[in-house]
Amino acid sequence: MNKGTVAWESPSNIALIKYWGKKGRQYPCNPSVSMTLKNAVSRTCLSFTERNQEWLTFEFEGKNVGAFENRIQNFLEELKDELSFINDYTFHIKSENTFPHSTGIASSASAMSSLAMCLCSMQEQVTGKKYEKDEFLKKASYIARLGSGSASRSIYGSYATWGKSNAFSKASSDYATPFSKYVHPIFKDYQDFILIVSSEKKKVSSTVGHSLMKHHPFAEARYDQAHDNFERMLGILRSGDLNGFIEVLENEALSLHGLMMNSNPSFTLLKPNTLLAIELIRDYRETTKTPIGFTLDAGPNIHLMFPKNELSVVNKFVDEELKHLLENGRYLKDETGLGPKQIM
Ligand code: DP6
After folding, report:
1. What is the 60 CA–ligand 1 centroid distance (Å)?
2. Where does a domain end: 166, 181, 196?
3. Is residue 19 within 6 Å of ligand 1 at its C-beta?
4. Where are the alpha helices (DSSP H) in the chain?
5. Domain for residue 257, yes or no?
6. In whole numbers, what is the pLDDT of the chain averaged over residues?
């Protein structure tokens, strides 16, 4: 086939155990595990024709964004060994996010995973060879990893691990591995409210943050801690231990930001209102015994995580006690999602 169109929708994910530090060809320095989101998704449409002068056009939400186009171009150039047809076609790619503009939500996981799914569908079309479902997902996760490490995990719904570990024999550093079938029912419809403290563009990208781990004085201690937390978190996801979940979740979030603050050069992504909100969340948990916990991405916004049966009390708590700390009082309600969906 020498022309066609494929499109996939793929979600973002929130890491419970963080990937921070990489080596070689986008391999993580420690294992990570994440929950796949439901509402924060990217939709990517890829049209291909026989190769002409132009190799690639890329539009994000109707606009040409140079920085995104360069990243996609580098990504495609690197895939010549994995997808040998890549030089024979011209690509027109359009992508959009369902989550609102400028909310500071990292979109590389959803964008790169949706593009990886498109490339694997395209491969099936141009070669006429269909993959088994598991093989398709494994390949897509491998390709997504090369685009953005965290994107490898978005290929799977519910929960997914990425990075080799003795605690989970199926885990690999090449691609993510689904963990959903081991998960306790309490985590199957877990909630994540994304509290927007600031939507400003980050001063330091994740890619730079990862590279600062190379000569970080605490790098080895961090990787040991991540291995221990990973093993604990998998046990917690199986058993449904909510107190353990909150303890490890918050330890990971604050360790990540600690590593940023004592990197050389140092940087701080937390904002004063992030810390105020954290204090209020901890006080509320202590006084009401509601099992809510927080985590943070590489940014100032808080992911407030809790079981679905606490939805109405948490809604009230956020509206009454946290909203004034948020930019325009804004937060996004999300929860565990099912993973990518083919839309064309
Ligand atoms: C803090 O996957 O965005 O969100 O591989 O350079 O694209 P690249 O980095 P990225 O890093 C994610 C960092 C994190 C933790 C995580 O998602 O595990």
Report:
1. 20
2. 181
3. yes
4. 66-77, 108-127, 133-147, 206-212, 219-239, 242-261, 272-288, 311-317
5. yes
6. 96
